[in-house]
């Protein structure tokens, strides 16, 4: 018999994992600056973020000034950063690199979808959501995964109470898993309908009303507080492919990223202790700037992990420097930490067993990074 679904607020594990994908190959060396490395400033005479403008993290690295809203999370131990992170893909192709990273290797389905399946029964109709027009590959194969851009889209497409009553009666005739699934779907809809989408965020949090990324995170926070059984959410921030005039093109995205994550953390307040946000991109950018005042496709990027249980306020992973002999291929920061090794301890905190980890990331010898 198929497992029954549940949207009860008494579910055993109320933890939520939020995956933020920076699509286009975000420049990790701009987001988190190696502020004491002269090689960085020589390779980027026009694009380098000035040392005095960065937000000092540990003496070696500094945050881009537009990420200043995240400084509090760093100082309070809720934000960890991994530099020179990425996948084994060296094609420098957006499509191939994104596909490999979202699938978790050369395997069918998405790693987040396999994680949710490994969790077993007890998922709700809103166990996994993507704030997007279509379901991303990372959630492929997930039980109960749903994609929408506005919470109100999760509906039966009618405003008539009579239609809803008749539809409920129709499913009440059924028995077993079908009836249970319908009942839980109606319950999820009831809880969503009870959300006041116009209500102010909690704890004085301020999202940008004109920023799609901010509004996506705001809706994730609303779903978490509504106890709809949300286990995982996916939110994209597009537009990181900065071959031309990077300093102009990238500033808006960096501002959106820092402000959105800080607002989300403030909005959730105490619930952030049961929430983890992972920020990742398919690859980083070339170490040296190009002749168009931008950067080309590279290898190693940066990952952020924020939330409950994170060993924050510190840089994680290996960092060897930026001298020429350490670079890879045409002049890239190498990948010294595989993205799966960052995700593994996060998934473990969200309920993945050691046995399940082999199914989530098949074919990869895990070297979990204790973030």
Separation of the first and last Cα atoms: 39 Å
How would you sum up the global shape?
Answer: globular
Helix content: 25-40%
Total number of distinct structural domains: 1
User: What radius of gyration results from the CA coordinates?
Assistant: 21 Å
User: If you consult CATH, what is the topology?
Assistant: Alkaline Phosphatase, subunit A
Number of strands: 12
The percentage of residues in β strands lies in: 15-25%
Largest sheet: 9 strands, mixed
Mean pLDDT: 90
Number of helices, where a helix is a run of at least 4 consecutive DSSP H or I residues: 11
Name of the CATH first level: Alpha Beta
- Residue windows where pLDDT falls under 50 for at least 5 positions: 1-12
Order of helices and strands: EHEHEEHEHHEEHHHEHEEEEHH
Query: Which second-level CATH architecture applies?
Result: 3-Layer(aba) Sandwich
Class by SSE composition? alpha/beta
Explain this structure to me?
By secondary structure, this protein is of the alpha/beta class. The protein has one domain (16-360): Alkaline Phosphatase, subunit A (3-Layer(aba) Sandwich). It has helices at 28-31, 38-43, 71-75, 94-103, 111-118, 161-172, 177-193, 212-225, 246-268, 339-349, 354-360, and strands at residues 16-23, 32-33, 55-56, 62-63, 79-86, 128-131, 145-148, 232-238, 275-281, 301-307, 314-316, 337-338. The strands form two sheets. Strands 1, 5, 6, 7, 8, 9, 10, 11 and 12 form a nine-stranded mixed sheet that branches. A three-stranded antiparallel sheet has the order 2-4-3. Helix 8 runs parallel beside helix 9. The protein is globular, with a radius of gyration of 21 Å.
């Amino acid at each position: 018999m198929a497992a029954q679904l549940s949207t009860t607020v008494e579910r055993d594990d109320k933890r939520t994992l939020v995956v933020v994908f920076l699509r286009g190959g975000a420049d990790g060396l701009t987001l988190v600056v190696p502020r004491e490395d002269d090689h960085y400033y020589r390779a980027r005479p026009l694009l380098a973020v000035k040392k005095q403008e960065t937000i000092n993290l540990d003496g070696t690295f500094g945050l881009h000034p537009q990420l200043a809203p995240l400084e509090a999370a760093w100082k309070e131990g809720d934000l960890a950063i991994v530099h020179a992170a990425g996948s084994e893909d060296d094609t420098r192709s957006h499509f191939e690199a994104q596909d490999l990273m979202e699938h978790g290797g050369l395997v069918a389905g998405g790693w987040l979808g396999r994680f949710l399946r490994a969790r077993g029964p007890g998922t709700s109709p809103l166990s996994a959501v993507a704030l997007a027009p279509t379901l991303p590959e990372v959630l492929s194969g997930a039980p109960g995964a749903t994609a929408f851009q506005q919470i109100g889209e999760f509906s039966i497409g009618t405003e008539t109470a009579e239609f809803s009553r008749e539809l409920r009666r129709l499913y009440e005739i059924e028995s077993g898993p079908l009836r249970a699934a319908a009942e839980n779907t109606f319950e999820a809809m009831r809880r969503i309908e009870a959300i006041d989408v116009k209500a102010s965020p909690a704890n004085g949090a301020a999202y940008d009303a004109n920023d799609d990324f901010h509004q996506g995170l705001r809706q994730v926070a609303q779903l978490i507080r509504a106890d709809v059984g949300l286990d995982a959410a996916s939110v994209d921030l597009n537009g990181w492919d900065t071959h031309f005039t990077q300093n102009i093109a990238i500033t808006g995205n960096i501002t959106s990223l820092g402000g959105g994550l800080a607002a989300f953390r403030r909005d959730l307040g105490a619930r952030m202790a049961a929430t983890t946000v992972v920020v990742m991109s398919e690859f980083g950018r070339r170490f040296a700037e190009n002749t168009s005042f931008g950067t080309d496709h590279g290898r190693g990027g940066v990952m952020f992990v924020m939330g409950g249980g994170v060993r924050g306020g510190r840089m994680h992973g290996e960092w060897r420097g930026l001298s020429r002999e350490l670079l890879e291929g045409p002049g890239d920061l190498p990948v010294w930490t595989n993205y799966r090794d960052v995700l593994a301890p996060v998934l473990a905190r969200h309920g993945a067993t050691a046995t399940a980890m082999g199914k989530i990331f098949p074919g990869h010898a895990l070297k979990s990074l204790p973030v």
